[in-house]
Design a protein that fits this description.
The chain is an alpha+beta fold. Helices cover 32% and strands 23% of the residues.
Length: 171
């Protein structure tokens, strides 16, 4: 069976979800064997021949009904996630937790423009933005919301270490 990865945006703090409960809710919604990684909305599931849009709607609806949170969901297949990781020019950086991929729901129609003097490096490639944070992520202005505002659409970020684990889990 083909595995897909659901990436929930905005999990944590007031929208924290218990992963055992999330797995149960999603399995009950017909998403087959569900695995979660960390507590940040990383879901590996059987796609059951469903389209990414159908999977995203199923996850979003199930989370809304069960937990009361309307959280955006982006879905990538195992192959798409592996391809994004392979295209990330910073993926092999020694500080994997400071290298992120911002997954976007659509391919932006406009180019990515980052002001000179910002220490971060960012590359837009298709529906992903690859970002290296040499001084750490916490104080950076280049968060997923920053990219959403400039490129349009919805996005959610995962670091290179998490992506590598999701690729292994979905293989």
């Amino acid at each position: 069976m083909t595995r897909s990865i659901g990436l929930l945006r905005g999990v944590g703090g007031p929208t924290a979800l218990k992963m055992p409960a999330l797995r149960e809710v999603l399995a009950s919604a017909g998403l087959g064997q569900v695995t979660t990684l960390h507590v940040a909305g990383n879901i590996v599931l059987d796609d059951g021949g469903r389209s990414p849009d159908e999977i995203a709607r199923t996850i979003r609806d199930a989370v809304r009904v069960a937990f009361g949170f309307d959280l955006p969901v982006l879905v990538r297949s195992h192959a798409e996630l592996a391809d994004a990781h392979a295209r990330n020019p910073f993926a092999d950086a020694s500080e994997g937790r400071w290298v992120q991929t911002v997954f976007l729901d659509t391919t932006p129609a406009r180019p990515l423009e980052v002001a000179a003097g910002i220490p971060e490096q960012a590359v837009l490639d298709g529906r992903e933005v690859f970002v290296r944070y040499p001084e750490g992520i916490g104080g950076s202005k280049l968060q997923a919301a920053w990219f959403e505002k400039r490129l349009g659409g919805t996005g959610t970020a995962r670091n290179a270490n998490t992506i590598a684990k999701l690729i292994a889990l979905s293989a």
